[in-house]
Amino acid sequence: MRRLSLGKYALPVYSVIAIIYLMIPIAYTFVFSFNNSLKTNLIWRGFTFDKWINVCQQQGVCEAFGNSILIGVVSTVLATTLGTMIAIALVRYRFKFRSFVSLLIFLPMATPEVVLGAGLASQFFSMGAAKGIGTIIIAHVMFCMSFVVVTVKARVASLDPALEEAGRDLYGSPAQVFWKITFPLLMPGILSAALLSFALSFDDFIITNFNSGPAMTFPKYVYTAAARGIPAEANVVGSGVFLLAIAIVVTIQVRSSLRSRRLARQG
Amino acid sequence: MAFAAFGHGGGGGAAAPATPTKKSKVALFLLLPGLIYLGLFFMTPLISLIITSLEVPDGSGVMGSYAYGFAIENYGKVVTEFWPQISHSFGYALIATVAALLISYPLAYFIGVKARRFPLIQGLMLTLVIAPFFISFLLRTFAWKQIFSNDSVAVQFLQQVGILGPHDYLVGTPFMVIFGLTYNFIPFMTLPLYSILERLDIRLLEAGSDLYATPATTFRKITLPLTAPGIISGTLLTFIPIAGDYVNASGDFLGGTKTAMIGNVVESRFLVLNDYPTASALSVLLMGVILLLVGFYAKRSGTEDLL
Questions:
Q1: The model scores a pTM over 0.90
Q2: Which of residues 139 through 158 in chain B touch A, CB cutoff 8 A?
Q3: Which of B21, B25, B41 is the best residue to mutate to test the A interface, defined by the most A CB atoms within 10 Å of its own CB?
Q4: CATH 1.10.3720.10: does it fit domain A60-230?
């Protein structure tokens, strides 16, 4: 009997410990964003809101953050568009070289970032292209696209073809059927793909480091600063983005659970 | 190399031969832009990497200037010169992947199976598992460095207890690098495990215990085989990025001079020393080993499953 009850609690207790372990560095980063630090942020010197209020006074942090947002938005729009088109084609159409296309989509995800980064950099080098924000965006669209395909593909596959058939039966043109039926139904999948793509782009360091030249992004700023100690303002940016992202995820979850409850009540 | 076989023709040629039906024209229109993009910025760079890996110094003595060549011996050179770093990459990746699997499986089992009756707890825990994705992994890795820095409470405690000698520290050791790698990639292991455990039919487990199987036997004969696809994709999703990582092993983060991995060499050779052939040969080598591994898995489970 005793062993049974021990077993009953072991797994939940373990899971809570594992989650706490995952949270430790996040909590550390958050707490040290309130540190009244001097140049480096190694020792606790007392609580202050100062770094949150005057984030941009630390040279380069806000500029790097702005670049990361710009790169993330442009890459996400491009990668989501190209990836969604491929996902629709993969699920809805039969064509030759299907397995080749699948392989070409899969391979970038199976390639270590350092290989992707060095490969692109050597290509830009041999082309004589100047590295900067443009080359970072080219790189980010490339590695985000496959993740978009995988995410949207699942949504397309779960779509009921009868809905589109009904649209065609009612004399909807192919364009009307797509924009009035297919696209709105795919929207949740496209949105989550876009969110994933933005998160991947925003947090990417390795590929960016190879293809950025003089351009600064937020992860690159943190990496460069690590040699002398990361300033508290970087913790502020990291924590701020974290809080915003959590807020978005919780909102989406609450809204979808409310909707499914509403649908359950109606059904 | 597998990708050399696919390389000729680049991206554009890939989807070009179309059957003359209306449908495949639409498919072509949908596929072509993305495939051309991947051809230009994924396939061509890989080929460019292979070409660069075979180059030789052009004799001008200018740093970073090389001439086309067919120096296969470049590969032999990098293997002998960087054998420690190569073995670190795959050794650390192997240990960290196994550690991540052992840590993640019970956690994913709890969230996916035991927490099913409590959707709120399930949602909350899942959000917390992906939460690390929302904060820069460089900041998180640096936080571990601070937490285990030489004069930290944690290290002082370990020294007093006697686990660490009075002059032993954690930062800069292989242990710390593997610790950081494991931590950073646990969500990549937990999520695929969760998504397969969430769909596990509990009645099969009940059937096992009804037939007097011990919990261990039920796990080994039922749960483990049914969740194998999750283990496979989780293993790939952690092993591949870990083998190529160089942030954790970098001296500014958790590593030191004795923990360098392939990525550290590629970074310094490519971006600092402009020694492109060496950097490229190491990258192609890394890619080759990963492709062998992926090919082995794909043969067992099919590429469609991997996607």
A1: no
A2: 139-144, 146-147, 149
A3: B41
A4: yes
Q: Are strands B66-67 and B56-57 parallel, antiparallel or unpaired?
A: antiparallel
Contacts of residue A199 in chain B, CB cutoff 8 Å?
Answer: 133-134
pLDDT in tens, A12-50: 999 999 999 999 999 999 998 888 777 777 777 777 877
Place of tokens 């953050």: A65
Assign a CATH topology to domain B74-306.
MetI-like fold (1.10.3720)
Closest alpha carbon within chain A to B145: A25
ipTM: 0.86
**B152 φ/ψ sector (left φ>0, alpha ψ -120 to 50, else beta):** beta
The burial of B67, by beta-carbon neighbours within 10 Å (0-12 exposed, 13-18 middle, 19 or more buried), is given as exposed
User: B164 vs A105, A131, B15, B73, B170, CA distance in Å?
Assistant: 47, 46, 60, 44, 9
CA distances from A245 to A74, A217, B111, B165, B168 (A): 19, 19, 22, 42, 39
Instruction: Kindly list the domain boundaries of chain B, sorted by start residue.
Output: 2-53, 74-306
| CA-based radius of gyration for chain B | 24
Tell me: the pLDDT tens digits for A142-166?
Answer: 999 999 998 898 888 888 888 888 8
